[in-house]
């Protein structure tokens, strides 16, 4: 007779409290700042917990270090192994360096170059494997079986979850009277740890997990009552793109939170959040780290203030950041791409068009001028413009003004 599987342990408040002294002198007590822009939007105080300023650029070092510190000296000598898109990789590399252990980290092919380089600089050996964190995790398990090294899972271990929960303990100590805490959600370590921490330290606070809609395994899993695997994922938020919730986080979250306290946000919401954090808070945050702010932007009335938002990481590839800024400007109605068809191909026509754009108060980012397009006659040209505007209403006025002036305008 096959024995019944052992129940998956849920993490409780006492586990998070026990993890806290392990991290003394290792992690930073990251600051909390109030966001005036978000507070005005929500109608009450919104406070940002800046884990993007943590060692390694994210909260991940907390769980990685607690897990590694609780290994035996023999286990540490055999080496630490991890799979990560970058943040957990750096956390494990830092933990290994602090504890004098070798580390090998498997990262997806196409992982951010800054994250690859940072992980190597912390002393870990980096191997590329698979297209996702889940596929890299398969390679990490194979390495463990071949070498006897110890896997430090990015989220599916009680020590890791307990370590991540120390973020929540700090936040409720730093901000009195919190009513809602928003955290990003991938495999579930941060949400589970925060929920466990606040169940003991501040049981009246609502904890909400925020997933990218294009990689949202949690809603279906909570409905099913067990972790469900996604067939595909598509999101810029690589740090929270996880196809299956972890067993330990799922056991913890499902015992503490209702399904309604897991929400999803669109790519446009995330882009707008990153742009707001850059412009208004002067903070560089990666897409997954801005998920909580994205939730506030998507539905400002859904969360009772005072609100605490964990900005979970700041390790963003500069090239991705450039694309996201442009995407965020478009989502906010401040970036306008349009084509002007059938422009007369004679001297001064382009200058006259650009003068009208300038008079309307828009900034020209880029101009494309084609005379050989199959869509125009021999004596006509086509002009593609990318413009920065002051918002949706301004963009609409600009387009209508050009059309009234006789231009044939197509908005991309």
CATH fold field value of the largest domain: Rossmann fold
Second CATH tier, the architecture of the largest domain: 3-Layer(aba) Sandwich
Mean pLDDT: 92
- For the biggest β-sheet, the strand order reads 1-2-10-7-8-9
The CATH class label of the largest domain is Alpha Beta
Give the low-pLDDT segments. Answer: none
Helix content: 40-55%
List SSEs in N-to-C order: HEHEHHEHEHEHEHEHEHHEHHEHEHEEHE
Structural class by helix and strand composition: alpha/beta
Number of helices: 16
Q: Into how many domains do the coordinates divide?
A: 3
Cofactor: pyridoxal 5'-phosphate
Protein name: threonine ammonia-lyase
EC number: 4.3.1.19
Family: Belongs to the serine/threonine dehydratase family.
């Amino acid at each position: 007779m096959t024995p019944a599987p052992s129940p998956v342990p849920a993490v409780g408040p006492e586990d998070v409290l026990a993890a806290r002294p392990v991290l003394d002198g290792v992690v930073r007590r990251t600051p909390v700042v109030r966001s005036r822009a978000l507070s005005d939007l929500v109608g009450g105080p919104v406070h940002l917990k800046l884990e993007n300023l943590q060692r390694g650029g994210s909260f991940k070092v907390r769980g990685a270090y607690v897990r590694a510190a609780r290994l035996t000296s023999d286990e540490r000598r055999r080496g630490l192994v991890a799979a990560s898109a970058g943040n957990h990789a750096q956390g494990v590399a830092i933990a290994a360096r602090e504890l004098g252990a070798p580390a090998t980290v498997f990262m997806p092919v196409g992982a951010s170059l800054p994250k690859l380089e940072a992980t190597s600089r912390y002393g870990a050996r980096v191997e590329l494997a698979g297209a996702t964190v889940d596929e890299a995790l398969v390679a990490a398990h194979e390495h463990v079986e071949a070498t006897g090294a110890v896997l430090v899972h990015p989220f599916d271990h009680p020590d890791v979850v307990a370590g991540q929960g120390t973020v929540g303990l700090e936040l409720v100590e730093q901000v009195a009277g919190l009513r809602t805490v928003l955290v990003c959600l991938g495999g579930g370590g941060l949400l589970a740890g925060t929920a466990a921490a606040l169940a003991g330290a501040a049981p009246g606070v609502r904890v909400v997990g925020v997933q990218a809609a294009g990689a949202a395994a949690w809603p279906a899993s909570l409905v099913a009552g067990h972790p469900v695997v996604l067939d595909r994922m598509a999101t810029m938020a690589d740090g929270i793109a996880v196809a299956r919730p972890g067993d330990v986080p799922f056991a913890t979250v499902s015992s503490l939170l209702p399904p309604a306290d897991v929400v999803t946000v669109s790519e446009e919401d995330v882009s707008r959040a990153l742009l707001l954090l850059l412009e208004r808070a002067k903070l560089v945050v990666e897409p997954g780290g801005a998920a909580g702010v994205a939730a506030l932007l998507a539905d400002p009335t859904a969360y009772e203030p005072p609100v605490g938002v964990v900005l979970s990481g700041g390790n963003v590839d500069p090239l991705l950041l450039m694309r996201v800024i442009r995407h965020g400007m478009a989502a906010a109605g401040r970036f306008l791409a349009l084509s002007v068809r059938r422009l007369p191909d004679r001297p001064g026509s382009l200058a006259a068009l650009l003068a009208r754009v300038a008079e309307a108060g828009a900034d020209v980012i880029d101009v494309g001028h084609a005379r050989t397009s199959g869509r125009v006659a021999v004596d006509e040209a086509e002009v593609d413009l990318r413009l920065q505007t002051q918002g949706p209403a301004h963009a609409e006025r600009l387009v209508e003004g050009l059309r009234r002036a006789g231009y044939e305008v197509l908005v991309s």
